[in-house]
Specification:
4 strands; alpha+beta; 7 helices; single chain; about 170 residues; 4-stranded antiparallel beta sheet
Length: about 170
């Protein structure tokens, strides 16, 4: 249920922000949010991050659908006690679905956030993806790696498998 709520919230905020960007920001007329630092700059991106591989819409749609299925699968295999890891996956999925929505609807992604020191223009879905990946990496690092996260349930049952009557009890 938390996955669905997080994904829906990210998707809603992303699509609302893109609607507002389309409605109020004109191409070539950036709006200074924090002068000489943060701007709203309208851009249509037919490619991936940084505009790479433009006009490969079908490829991006297929890759995003595969990634979404894998994220849901991994989310379901991670114990509920690993809240941060699961939250990072939910952000990643929400961001991916936000950009997928744009690609399906219009074959491009609406970008509108730019920093003076960072040339690419991006959107809130991109931000959710980057923050989600960051949370995932930190959660994996803090809990000892993916293997320990994925095998937690099997470790709890290890003592019953290697009990006193087992010939391999000293392994």
């Amino acid at each position: 249920m938390r996955l669905l709520i997080t994904v829906a919230l990210v998707l809603f905020i992303d699509q609302l922000s893109k609607y507002l960007a389309i409605s109020f920001i004109r191409t070539g007329q950036p709006i200074a949010v924090i002068d000489n630092f943060l701007y709203f700059t309208f851009a249509l991106n037919p490619g991936a991050a940084f505009g790479l591989f433009p006009y490969q819409t079908t490829f991006f749609i297929v890759v995003t659908i595969i990634a979404a299925v894998l994220i849901v699968y991994f989310y379901r295999t991670i114990p509920a006690s690993h809240k941060w890891l699961r939250f990072g996956l939910a952000l990643l999925l929400g961001g991916a679905l936000g950009n997928l929505t744009d690609r399906v609807r219009a074959t491009y992604v609406v970008d509108f956030i730019s920093f003076r020191f960072f040339p690419p223009v991006f959107n809130l879905a991109d931000t959710a993806i980057v923050v989600g990946v960051g949370i995932i990496l930190i959660a994996i690092w803090r809990t000892g790696g993916l293997e320990s996260n994925m095998c937690e349930g099997s470790r709890e049952s290890l003592p019953t498998v290697l009990n006193e009557t087992s010939p391999n009890k000293h392994i």
